[in-house]
Write a structure and sequence with these properties.
single chain, 134 residues, mainly alpha, 4 helices, elongated
């Protein structure tokens, strides 16, 4: 493999008879406060950000404490911990494969709702586990 070359587009030369076009206006720069005002004025953006923070915290908590729960409270072995991840991935693969069709069917808001319902069902299923059910 040879060295990577940076391809820089060459400027087109203008014909001497063509007048130079006026320079484009520079984009306006705003502050983070302006950006926050724009986002926080729309209730759907605020709701999305709130959903994202809550679900992120919930998923981080479950993913962090799941193996501790399985090992310490249910006295399970490493195989069961590995199988819980493997089964999770097996359920994700068909969803990723048909994601475009599912997204068209449910829409963005519906997909968020379905994902939250599935997550809550998963967490509820974990609460049903006892040492006798493993």
């Amino acid at each position: 493999v040879g060295p990577t070359r940076l391809m820089v587009p060459q400027q087109q030369q203008q014909h001497p008879r063509q007048a130079a076009s006026p320079p484009a206006a520079a984009p306006q720069r705003g502050s983070l406060v302006d950006l926050a005002k724009i986002f926080l004025c729309h209730s759907n953006v605020v709701a999305f950000l709130l959903e994202t923070v809550i679900m992120g915290a919930a998923m981080a908590t479950v993913e962090t404490l799941l193996f501790l729960y399985l090992k310490n409270d249910l006295h399970s072995n490493n195989t069961l911990c590995g199988l819980s991840v493997g089964i999770n991935v097996l359920f994700e693969l068909p969803i990723f494969w048909s994601a475009e069709h599912i997204l068209r069917w449910f829409g963005h808001d519906g997909m968020l709702a379905v994902s939250m319902i599935c997550f809550f069902g998963r967490v509820y299923g974990y609460t049903l586990l006892t040492p006798s059910t493993k």
